[in-house]
């Protein structure tokens, strides 16, 4: 479903990605974990065709990001921190206008909006103007907009940041419920507890390179640690970890 091969990316002389390779399958919630500046957003922007890699190759849902970026865009929904909503439109209006872009009829759009209302508890968000939204309301509509066309791959980049416990719970439950054969969610964050809760396999990225990738239980067993946070330190700073 997602195949990333030795991807490199530099900003000027700074190497943000130093040859990252990983694979993720349908049916998985795949965690991308790393501290600020690890290169997570850079990697996600590359696989969503928002940024070109300097080297390497990526296929998503069977499509090559360089050869067929349009097909990749149809196959992926992206949620990141920087996505705004038009302040004057209600959530329903935002979703209906995006449905037109995705080629859905009004009936199809309204059926899909009703389904997402149920799954994301959009409630009064649908008929409130985006300018009056709380952070949680905004994020729910942004997520609904990202999955409106029912893409097989969903990319969430720090999607829970700024959310209160209720909105975060809705998001994590949505991610859990979205797990299905033929569907992949890539969940990127620096918050280890979110990954521990929702992800099957995890890749840990540090300074542009992959430190490890595997099932959480296997990473804990290999490092002899009891949490991903401790495993992370054991992997990237073994001398600090041993001293604790
Ligand atoms: N357009 C850019 N120009 C120069 N440097 C950049 C640019 N975008 C990102 N970087 C640098 O590349 C590195 C990786 O950034 P990236 O945003 O991919 O990391 P991240 O793991 O997503 O971290 P965060 O959680 O802070 O967003 C950082 O050191 C960042 O400063």
UniProtKB/TrEMBL annotation:
Instruction: Extract the InterPro entries matched here.
Output: AAA+_ATPase, ABC_transporter-like_ATP-bd, ABC_transporter_ATP-binding, P-loop_NTPase
Query: Keyword Nucleotide-binding: yes or no?
Result: yes
Picking any one GO molecular function of the record gives: ATP binding
Enumerate the spans annotated as ABC transporter domain. 2-232
UniProt entry keywords in alphabetical sequence: ATP-binding, Nucleotide-binding, Transport
Q: Which family does it belong to?
A: Belongs to the ABC transporter superfamily.
Write down the PANTHER family for this protein, in alphabetical order: ABC TRANSPORTER ATP-BINDING PROTEIN, ABC TRANSPORTER ATP-BINDING PROTEIN NATA
Q: What is this protein called?
A: ATP-binding cassette domain-containing protein
Organism in which the protein naturally occurs:
Deinococcus arboris
């Amino acid at each position: 479903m997602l195949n990333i091969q030795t991807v490199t990316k530099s900003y000027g002389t700074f190497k943000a990605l130093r040859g990252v390779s990983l694979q993720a399958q349908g049916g998985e919630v795949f965690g991308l974990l790393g501290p600020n500046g690890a290169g997570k957003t850079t990697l996600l922007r590359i696989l969503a065709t928002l940024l070109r890699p300097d080297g390497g190759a990526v296929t998503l849902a069977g499509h090559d990001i360089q050869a067929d970026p349009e097909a990749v865009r149809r196959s992926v929904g992206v949620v990141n921190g920087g996505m705004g909503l038009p302040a004057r439109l209600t959530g329903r209006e935002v979703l209906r206008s995006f449905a037109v872009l995705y080629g859905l009829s009004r009936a199809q759009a309204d059926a899909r909006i009703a389904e997402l209302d149920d799954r994301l508890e959009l409630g009064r968000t649908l008929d409130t103007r985006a300018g009056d939204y709380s952070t949680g309301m905004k994020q729910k509509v942004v997520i609904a907009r990202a999955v409106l066309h029912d893409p097989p791959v969903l990319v969430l980049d720090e999607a829970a940041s700024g959310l209160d416990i209720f909105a975060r719970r809705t998001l994590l439950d949505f991610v859990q419920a979205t797990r299905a054969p033929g569907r992949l969610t890539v969940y990127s964050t620096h918050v280890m507890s979110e990954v521990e809760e929702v992800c099957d396999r995890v890749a840990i990225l540090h300074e542009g390179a992959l430190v490890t990738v595997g099932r959480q239980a296997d990473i804990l067993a290999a490092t002899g640690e009891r949490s991903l946070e401790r495993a992370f330190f054991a992997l990237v700073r073994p001398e600090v970890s041993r001293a604790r």
